[in-house]
Amino acid sequence: xxxxxxxxxENSTLRMISYAExxxxxxxxxxxxxxxxxxxxxxxEGDFITSSNxxxxxxxxxxxxxxNEACKNHLPFHVCEIGGGNGRFAKAFIxxxxxxxxxxxxxxxxxTSPYHRQLQQEKxxxxxxxxxxxxxxxxxxxxxxxxxxxxxxxxxVHVIENNSDGLxxxxxxxxxxxxxxxAVPLNNEEILFFLEESGLKLSxxxxxxxxxxxxxxxxxxxESLEQxxxxxxxxxxxxxxxxxxxxxxxxxxxxxxxxxxNKILKHPGEMDxxxxxxxxxxxxxxxxxxLKFIHKLRQDEFLLSTGILQELEDHYDPNPFSEVSKRxxxxxxxxxxxxxxxxxHVILQHKGVEAK
Length: 356
Known about the structure:
The protein contains twelve helices and 17 strands. By secondary structure, it is α/β, with parallel strands linked by helices. A seven-stranded mixed beta sheet has the order 4-3-2-5-10-17-16. Strands 1, 6, 7, 8 and 9 form a five-stranded antiparallel beta sheet that branches. The longest helix has 17 residues, at about 55-75. The model has no long low-confidence stretch (mean pLDDT about 90).
């Protein structure tokens, strides 16, 4: 991958590329990209962990939540999960649905990684009602729930920095045979427009990531959804939080064998690259395209609101090594303020649905 990237950059028009283009290649190149390779990415043998891989309780809890919401709002039992990963969330959701409801569930998984698509096929019995898709166009116009967990944080982002003499975009070049960073005056009109619309004000010396692809995806989701809900789970910051001194260096980083790597030009194609999303902009852009903002909750608050605590109370087992006890420990890890859920937020948006 490193040799490919060096040739790619050297043969580019300016002999340098944006961070967004670098991330696109490092993560999504059909042959060398991190997400495209046939190697574990999630779990102990991979590079990072997600909520749905702690326990099946996560997917089962969201299934119960959707069943109640769909009944309340008279929505069809249709779900589209974007970025289904190894399929563990989908399997838990589908398994719970079989116990929960008589109505037929239609479940679609949109996943671009061939490796993850294969893992999903090993876990899930696909049928006419449970399908993998390659595009929202296959199911548009869609009615039901569109769900994603840690989707937007993996999108390519531009990196800009505010200096005393103006705004600069950080680019990637080849210097002495290695990948290196260079700052050039910012002239990307899309980035300038994003900053203006978002209302973000950068302090002197502050660096931040600009997620232009996020708007394209939100627009795509909104146009594909005729009626229903969008549930987005991810980590990120509000505009106010972006202003805090601790955010001066931005949030772009990599995860390699469960270690955080701050220099993302290392290990290209071998590590995950991620950044915190702009919550206020996600909500603002959604509203522009017809997605009505309902609420933003911390993930632990959302899970508690769904009644997950009742699961803990109803399934007590004094044997610490039993499956029930393991499950209860997983529940606690998802709802404790010090657990991973406190870093995530759940955003709910509606289209053509009156909140009840």
